[in-house]
Amino acid sequence: MKIEFTDIKKTDYAAVKQLYSAAFPREEQVPFWYPFEKRASVNAAFLNIFDGHIRIGFIYLIFNHDILFIFYLAIDPGLHSKGYRGRGITGIKNKYPGYRIFLNIEAVEGNAANRESRIKRKKFYTTNGFKESGYMFKQNGKLYEILINGRVMSPGEFTDTIKRYLGIPLSLFFTPWVCKKAKDCI
Question: Which residue has the higher pLDDT, 177 or 119?
Answer without folding.
Answer: 119
